[in-house]
User: What shape does this take?
Amino acid sequence: MKLNVGCGLEIVPGYDNLDNSLSIRVQSSPWLRAGAGLVERMLQRQAYTRFPAGVRWCDVTHGLPYPDTSVEVVYSSHMLEHLPRQSAEWFVREAYRVLKPGGVLRIAVPDLERKARDYLVRLELDSRHENASAALPADEFMQSTLLGVETRWTWRHPGEMYRAILARGHLWMWDGPSLSGLLFGIGFGDVREKGFRESVISEIEQLDVEERRGESVYVEGQRLLCSFALGCLSCCSAAASLGMIGI
Assistant: This one.
């Protein structure tokens, strides 16, 4: 079994494609679809995203609905940054739990380091008046990270209210070292930053999408066959008898 968590519209054959979009709930309910149709006619715009068939609704902040050591691959692209940091850690722990020994977790997120470096370059150009006609670097940085709220809504403008309610901004950003540290701290081994479509996962060309390539950092780790950090007493005892560790 293989999981594509936070798949959006990018489903991959042979995977359980999971997403927590409200649109999936709407699609699965005739009553909600009818209500959304009324909203669409009122706003004269599409009220919810039409997901491909086969995408399952799943809120990862409540865990992954799979047994321990039952999954070969957990893949997630541009989902982790939408979670509070504590929930992101919980998701990675859940990924570790469901992965078989030797199973792979691969996470792609917007690269905070890249965005910060771009901001500093733009700020330097702006200070030398080489970029005076463009938007302010700070505004561009906030817009690119999706960490802020730019417009407010009022009851007099239901379209703005609709966008505010369904806005899915970023809650915690990551760079390569911080994401690698998260995986390593939970017990993953062979944790590495990887390039675009550089992976041991055989379906990687379907999973890593081209439009995310320029802004993403990719980190991959494996669930160890045995993790001393998780307190496997029998393995630690065997290792001690061989002089590998001291207990």
Observations:
- The chain has two domains: 2-20+58-110+174-241, 112-170.
- Residues 112-170 form one domain.
